[in-house]
Amino acid sequence: MAVFDAEKVQGNILRGYPLDRVRHMILEVSDRRRAREFLAAAADGRGEDVPRITRSANWSERPEVCFNIGITFEGLRTLGLPSDELKTFPTEYTEGMTRRALKLGDFGESAPEHWPAPFDRPDRIHIVASAYANANHHLDDIEKKVAKVFTVLGTRDGRNLPDGKVFFGYRDGISQPRLRHVFDPEHAGDHQIKDPLGTVLLGYQTQLEGIKFTIPTPEDVFRDSAFNAFRVLQQDTGAFETYLTDAAHFLESHRDVARLLPEGAEQNIGGGMSRHDALREVVAAQMCGRWRNGTPYEASPNSDVQDGISLTNYDYSLSSRCPAGSHMRRANPRGGPIVQRVANYTRRMVRRGMSYGPDPETGEHGLLGNFIGANYGAQFEAVMCDWINFGLQDPGITGTNDPLLGANVPETSRFDLTLKGGGHIRLSGFPRFVKTRGGAYTLLPSLPAIRYLSQLTA
Amino acid sequence: MSDDSGWLNSYINSLPERGWFQFLSKYVVVPFWVWREGRPKLPGGPRPSPQPSDNTQRMMNLLMPLKDTSPIGRAKAVMALAQNVDEIFAGLDNVGTVHSARFLLVEDYICMISVYDGDFSNYIRDFISTIGSVFDALMHEVEGGDKLYPSEENVEAFIDWVREHDLFQAPDYPFDLFGLQDEQAGRKPNDPPHDLQTLPRSLILQLHANRNISLGGGYRGYPGYSAAQIRRNLGVGW
Amino acid sequence: MENKHLVKDIVHALDIDGGSTERRPVHTVGVGATGFFKPSPMAQRFCVAEHFLPKAAKKGVRVDIRFSNGMGVVEEHDGWSDVRGMAVRFYLENGQSTDLVAMTLPVFFAPTPETFLDFALNARPKPCQRATPWQKIKSYLQLQLPLPDPYPGQTERPNEGAIAFASKHVWAQPAVIDASSIGAPVSYVRATYHAVHTFIVTGKDGQRRWVRFSWAPIAGVLNTDPKKPPEDRYLKKDLEKRLSHGRTERFSLMMQIGETGDDFNDSTRQWPPHRTRVMMGTLTLNKVREDQQEYFEKLSFNPWHLTDGIDPSDDPVLRIRKDVYAFSSNRRQGTPCPFSGTKG
Predict the structure, then answer these.
(1) Domain segments of chain C: what residues?
(2) What is the distance in angstroms between the Cα of B156 and the nearest Cα belonging to chain A?
(3) DSSP B166
(4) Residue B82 within any structural domain of the chain
(5) In the complex, which subunits touch A with 3 or more CB pairs below 8 angstroms?
(6) ipTM of model
(7) Which overall architecture, per CATH, does domain C4-123+164-331 show?
(8) How many CA atoms lie within 13 A of A199 on its CB side?
(9) What gap in Å lies between CA A171 and CA A150, rounded to an integer?
(10) How many CA atoms lie within 13 A of A442 on its CB side?
(11) Torsion sign over Cα C295, C300, C301, C305
């Protein structure tokens, strides 16, 4: 196993950037030769005509601008990677996100047939280049440089909302895999089990005992790369808030409501609110797994006051108040009881996301997400198709989908709220709150891989 | 028209049963149509679906060709399994999503027939991570198995190989065959709609491409429930 | 009545030579029986309609059942390949009742009333002839099956029209494929009947589920041998014989539950056989009534005739059947069903 060298790994994988804006540029390689020159300059240039690729290394001072690239399989092919090397890439990546739609739950309104440009022509998407900064003019500069060499099929701009929130009102991005060999001050207080580097990078030990994922050929070139699922996720906050109100009306007069939220507990939620509003917040908290301010529901089911409660150090058990069907628990069951006993801690991913919108014309808003791991099949897809949707990890939720992210239709959707002392109240009739509006599977190549691609001659 | 052509009509109606006609079909008619509009091989295993009843109790019909088909070779394959039965069962227990799994030695194949929940590649991957070494012992007796050794370091290739050797599951309703064939050939399904009369031909040509198949997803006595749900509801713990 | 013209057009499209406006336009020939239904213990968990409650399990709910042949002709050809019908009326308390209308075809020919009218017009029986030997050989050489020979005395049939239409309209294909090989059952009680449309049932806990009902014969499914010449009149005699001397025949009411991704308003696609199925109860037939003409010909079943606990889905064909059945019932002067808008 190689010694880990941060200089070889692109940034924003092992640690997040402290910058608040992003522009993802979706590019087509129209001129292979110039594209390769761009890659060479991006890897080793000084950033004058071509933006420089940001590495994972420790920074002495905070950068103003960061720049990274992801390449699709069609992109690798267009850049001229020989076919015997293309064959060594994993099937999920070669097929591309659009062809995996049914497995990911992208059907109905989320189906690729309904994705807007440029995601409606996945064969033309070759590179997703991402620029990060605090000021828009930096992003414009980079886009200009990129547009000189590539065809810009489209862009998506994102930004961090205040208080680290997403449009649904929750604080996001609290818990990430903490990787061995990587010091991340942002997550110093997190006592979760550390993950091996192979969780994210190719060429290292993974959490699955004995298993190492195949590194595409040539191995010493593609080692230290990662695979990313880039997703444009529209969030229907209006429908969500409406449903919370309807649910609260239904719960107010339910005979078991005191075991859901004790009388008077509404004083300790959101700084004190009406019982109706508190019930809305309880539903929101149980559906997510955290109160909107980030306090874990498992640690504090009757109040969102954060005093002294760790945001990250808790676990689930058979008697957890946090429902097995909540979004966070589906995405990361931690050490809790799951059907696939061998799989605890094996499907974690690094998530980097920023909010987009609202669009001035349509009002569309949501999340631009990067879900990064070493193997789609073992991580992103495994979580999406068996845990987020379908709920196979717990017999109480099998056959139901994630209330926030899942592929729900009102006729069949179900979510069980947990009650003190056991039992549940069943909610139903909620629609799909998050719709997929585009995406791509991209390789986040290591620096050696970028150099290798820049030197291809086919 | 009166029935004086009755005998001819009966004879014609019975053509598909006649030996000489079957011979002609096998050596001339079918090969002609295979050349003219042969169907691509359809992938094995259950197809992705958002429906819970499609994701529980899925069928795996894995046919693995033996390297050595002599009685000694077959005995070696049997021993490779028999000596590791405890490990295999413990591994399946910890994967948690398997309803049943059994091995058959049939003609020149060693087969694994299994009923499981959820995504097939998760099932195989979790299984390899617990008992990869057992798999290797078995794969040593299977043709093409050496390329996948050791399974723990060739997880993706192993999963692809299993998918290749898992039988194609014919759709539950014959009409769906047209759409599957269209998709496999890269066309939009049923666009334009197929002539209904060509359904028998489509089936025959598909059986030429996929020699061994599973007839649909099989009968279930208690469909729609995962292994863990059944264990929980029966009170024996999951 | 919604869209009177469409309703009338549909009924007229179904009127064929050999039919009669004094009888039903389809499912003309039939035989009625009586019996009772007893729900299973878990039926009320899924549906709180009266006939699924525990009280009904003790005594059973009285039912009338009408079996029928699908073809819209008055001549009886039991042995011809044809869809069969099974309409059941459950008699509840206080003079209430509810119907479940089912047939051996598991899907409908079209997803909307307009497309159904299109289909019905194109599938009207046309003169038919046995294919010549050369035509048959040509079929076999194309790895196709020639159409079956017409039955002795059969001069028209819908097969050619239906198949040609379905070859151009994908949504008709599942139904036409099934209908062309459906055959003839050896008895009305040896076939599976499907209610086809999706209904919404409300369970004891208030949970609503989108479901489909089927009657599964406890005697099992069995068709006559298609190679033997068909008998014309045997189904009524068969049923009388089976229910004589105190003998009974039974059906299980099976209910499949809908799942994410189903189009609940489209009855042209069958749900896969491995759906969760619930055993809702048992129907026992015990008598063939003597007064078939007076009683069953006048009885007007309607798939919309439901009760608390069972609601219709938004399936547009289900909705127009309400009016089509009422129109046909009025025309033949049947006892008005609750929707016919006329007084008895």
Answers:
(1) 4-123+164-331, 126-157
(2) 7
(3) B
(4) yes
(5) B, C
(6) 0.91
(7) Beta Barrel (2.40)
(8) 23
(9) 36
(10) 26
(11) negative
Residue C192: how many CB atoms within 10 A of its CB? 20
Q: Which residues of A lie inside 8 Å of B (Cβ-Cβ)?
A: 90-91, 102-103, 105, 107, 208-214, 338-343, 346, 375, 377-378, 381-382, 385-386, 389-390, 392, 394-396, 398-399, 407
Q: Quick one: DSSP state of residue A246?
A: H
Strands A65-71 and A127-133: antiparallel
The dihedrals phi and psi of C278, each to the nearest 5 degrees, come to -115, 135
pTM score of the predicted model = 0.93
Which residue, chain included where needed, has tokens 């290591």? A446
Locate B6 and state its tokens: 């009755």
Q: What is the SS3 assignment for B158? A: helix
pLDDT by residue, tens only, chain C of 344 residues: 567 888 888 888 887 777 777 777 778 788 999 999 999 999 999 999 999 999 999 889 999 999 999 887 778 889 989 999 999 999 999 899 999 999 999 999 999 999 999 999 998 889 988 888 899 999 999 999 999 889 888 888 889 999 999 999 999 999 999 998 899 999 999 999 999 999 999 999 999 999 999 999 999 999 999 888 899 899 999 999 999 999 999 999 999 999 999 999 999 999 999 999 999 999 999 999 888 877 887 788 999 999 999 999 999 999 998 888 888 878 877 776 666 544 33
Q: Do B48 and A102 touch (CB under 8 A)?
A: yes
Does some domain include residue B158? yes
Helix, strand or coil, per DSSP, at residue B94? helix
Residue whose token pair is 């229907």 = A236
Q: Is residue A356 included in any domain, yes or no?
A: no
Q: What is the CATH number of the domain that holds B110?
A: 3.30.70.1090
In this structure, is residue A367 part of a structural domain? Answer: no
Contact C252/C102 with Cβ under 8 angstroms? no
Whether chain C has a CB inside 8 Å of the CB on A412: the answer is yes
Return d(Cα C16, Cα A199) in angstroms, integer: 70
> Which residue range is the domain that position A49 belongs to?
6-233+439-454
Is position B110 within any domain? yes
Q: Do A385 and B160 touch (CB under 8 A)?
A: no
- For residue B210, which of B166, B155, B147, B146 has the smallest C-alpha distance? B166
Tell me the backbone φ, ψ of residue B209, rounded to 5 degrees.
-75, -40
Q: Report the C-alpha gap between A138 and A157 in whole angstroms.
A: 13
> Does some domain include residue B17?
no
Preceding omega of B193 cis (within 30 degrees of 0)? no
Three-state DSSP state, A358: coil
